[in-house]
């Protein structure tokens, strides 16, 4: 009872209903057979045959109480078995059930034949015994086939349990894959947020680059302003020198006006000399730029001038007016004065040569006049030497002043330039750090994208494999 009832409980609802119909038909036929067992045979033999038939169908442990319980259970209806709805894996189980039903039908046919034979027992006991033997052999064969079908049914049940376990494992794997998918979705969100941060950092880098370009423009403007300030400073120094020359020039004009009456004859020559000097001045102004950058040439020319003055100590010529002391001269004016002195020395040489060639001047008056001119020239040379010394001292003072002003100017602007350079370095360092960070984040993003694509691909393959295995 425990074995067969447990097996019946594991069947589907349709199988239970079929089993119920089989049991009902078997009981009806057994009752018919019990009513006809009086013909030709003993009652005990019929009971033994019915018991044997029940044993063949339901086993040795089967009794009427178990049959009644089975009938009550089947009359209750509904699904009694947990294994219903298995799907395609129940086909083998249903085939085994069908085979068992066929065996039961054949057993029922055999029972019918046995009942007919028992009804025909009046025709001969021998035939009855032969038919009983045949039926017993047939019943044994059917029992063997039924046991085989039951073993196959147990194997099918084991396969069903295995498939259940596989389904449970597959469902667990599907849950794990869903969890992985959720984790990958979270990682994808993180990657998207990182991508947004990368875009923001790229925009910041572009803004910093624009700022750097603007800083470069500012540096150019600062250099231009420095050049302009240097030119303005030179112009200021030139104007200061010219302002200092105004009183000396005024004194020279007064002295020239006083001496104008005395040297009317020399006025014409002085006018010619002035014209030549104006031409020389125009020519010298064009050479001022080169003279400022050639200080060594200036010193060599001063030494040549001193040598020429020593050679011309014995020459006679009236002193050329308009060569007073000029304090605080610039380098350009010093160069200009040196060239003027050279020109005046050349004119003096010409005048001395003309005085020597003139026969009128060979008299005593000429000699006395020549001696006076020589003394005047010596005095003029002494004055020129003193003037040169003053010019050199003024030049040194001017150089010192310019150096001081330039040093102050450079200190102020160097501090500003250093600050700008420090800021530029900080900005460059920030830009490099941002570029390094963006490169590392890009590589990490590419790596994450590859991992996501590989995991998604593996997940899709796993899902397809699960679907194929289910089919």
TrEMBL record:
InterPro entries to which the protein is assigned, alphabetical: Hook_C
GO BP annotations listed: cytoplasmic microtubule organization
Domain of life: Eukaryota
Transmembrane segments: none
Keyword set includes NAD: no
One example GO MF annotation: microtubule binding
Keywords noted in UniProt: Coiled coil
Positions in coiled-coil regions: 93-194, 222-437
Protein name: Hook C-terminal domain-containing protein
Taxonomic path: Eukaryota, Sar, Stramenopiles, Ochrophyta, Bacillariophyta
Leader sequence segment: none
Species per Swiss-Prot/TrEMBL record: Proboscia inermis
């Amino acid at each position: 009872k425990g074995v067969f009832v447990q097996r019946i409980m594991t069947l589907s609802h349709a199988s239970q209903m079929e089993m119920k119909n089989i049991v009902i038909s078997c009981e009806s036929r057994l009752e018919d057979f019990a009513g006809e067992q009086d013909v030709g045979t003993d009652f005990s033999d019929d009971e033994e045959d019915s018991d044997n038939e029940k044993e063949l169908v339901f086993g040795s442990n089967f009794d009427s109480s178990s049959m009644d319980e089975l009938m009550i259970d089947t009359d209750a209806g509904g699904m009694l078995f947990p294994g219903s709805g298995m799907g395609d894996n129940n086909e083998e189980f249903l085939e085994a059930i069908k085979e068992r039903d066929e065996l039961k039908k054949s057993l029922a046919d055999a029972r019918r034949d046995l009942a007919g034979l028992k009804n025909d027992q009046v025709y001969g006991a021998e035939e009855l015994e032969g038919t009983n033997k045949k039926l017993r052999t047939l019943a044994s064969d059917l029992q063997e086939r039924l046991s085989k079908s039951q073993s196959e049914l147990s194997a099918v049940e084991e396969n069903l349990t295995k498939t259940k376990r596989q389904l449970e494992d597959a469902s667990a794997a599907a849950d794990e894959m869903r969890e992985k998918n959720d984790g990958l979705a979270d990682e994808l969100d993180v990657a998207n947020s990182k991508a947004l941060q990368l875009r923001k950092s790229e925009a910041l880098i572009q803004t910093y680059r624009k700022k750097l370009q603007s800083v470069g423009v500012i540096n150019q403007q600062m250099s231009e302003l420095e050049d302009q300030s240097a030119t303005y400073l030179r112009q200021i120094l030139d104007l200061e020198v010219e302002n200092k020359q105004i009183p000396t020039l005024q004194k020279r004009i007064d002295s020239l006006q006083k001496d104008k009456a005395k040297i009317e004859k020399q006025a014409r020559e002085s006018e010619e000399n002035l014209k030549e000097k104006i031409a020389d001045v125009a020519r010298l102004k064009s050479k001022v730029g080169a003279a400022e950058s050639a200080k060594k040439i200036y010193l060599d020319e001063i030494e040549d001038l001193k040598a020429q003055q020593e050679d011309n100590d014995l020459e006679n010529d009236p002193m050329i007016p308009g060569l007073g002391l000029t304090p605080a001269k610039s380098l350009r004016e010093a160069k200009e004065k040196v060239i003027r002195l050279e020109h005046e020395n050349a004119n003096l040489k010409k005048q001395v040569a003309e005085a020597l060639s003139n026969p009128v001047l060979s008299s005593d008056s000429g000699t006395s006049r020549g001696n006076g001119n020589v003394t005047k020239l010596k005095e003029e040379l002494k004055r020129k030497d003193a003037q040169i010394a003053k010019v050199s001292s003024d030049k040194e003072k001017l150089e010192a002043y310019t150096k001081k002003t330039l040093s102050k100017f450079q200190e102020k602007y160097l501090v500003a330039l250093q600050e700008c350079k420090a800021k530029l370095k900080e900005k460059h360092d920030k830009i490099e750090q941002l570029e390094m960070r963006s490169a590392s984040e890009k590589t990490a993003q590419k790596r994450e994208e590859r991992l996501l694509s590989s995991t998604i691909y593996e997940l899709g393959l796993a899902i397809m494999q699960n679907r194929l295995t289910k089919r």
